[in-house]
Amino acid sequence: MCYCPGDTPSGGYDQAGLPQRDYPCQAYNMNKKLTSTWQRRLLDMRNGLLKNSDNTIEDRKPVGLDQTAVGRLSRMDALQVQAMQIETNRRRQLELKRIESALSRLKDGEFGYCIICGKEIEDKRLNIDPTVPSCIACSRNNG
Questions:
Q1: Distance from chain centroid for Cα 15
Q2: Domain parsing of the chain, residue ranges
Q3: 3-state DSSP helix/strand/coil percent for the chain, to nearest 5?
Q4: Which long-range contacts (CB under 8 A, 24 or more apart) does 113-116 make?
Q5: By CB neighbour count within 10 A (0-12 exposed, 13-18 middle, 19+ buried), where does 61 fall?
Q6: What are the pLDDT digits (tens) for 38-67?
Q7: C-alpha gyration radius of the chain
Q8: Are 117 and 140 in contact (CB under 8 A)?
């Protein structure tokens, strides 16, 4: 849950000393249209990555060793393409994890709030990359 100014705690405090709440923040409830816009954008990003992954399956398969079927230079080129596609897929999987995390935060009413300090992440930052989990200040301080 996020901790927005103006929200009233339902009582008590958690281990970190933050007020406990039984509901998403008021901003979340007031911005359901904006929430669905972010969800649609994140789902589109995820679907695009999955489609790209499906398109490059063949390029990631092992390269055959039979040099009688493929020349040495062609095989070297195929190995290079394979290595690039494997690395691209690794990065794609990391991005998918970030998207899933952002969707989870959106569902929990925590999207748009820094996971470190709890402050609101600037709209400019979210528009550039809606998967960012932290504000600029915390990103700078935590590397």
A1: 27
A2: 26-111, 113-143
A3: 55, 5, 40
A4: 113/2, 113/3, 113/4, 114/138, 116/142
A5: exposed
A6: 999 999 999 999 998 877 777 666 766 666
A7: 22
A8: no
Residue type, 40: R
CA 108 to CA 52: how far, in whole Å?
Answer: 29
Task: Quote the pTM value.
Answer: 0.67
CB count within 10 Å of CB 129 equals 11
Residue with more model confidence, 28 or 55: 55
Interval 65-81: pLDDT, tens: 666 666 667 778 888 88
Rounded CA-CA distance 24/18 in Å is 14
Asked if residue 10 lies in contact with residue 22, where contact means CB atoms within 8 angstroms, the answer is: yes
Q: Are 105 and 76 in contact (CB under 8 A)?
A: no
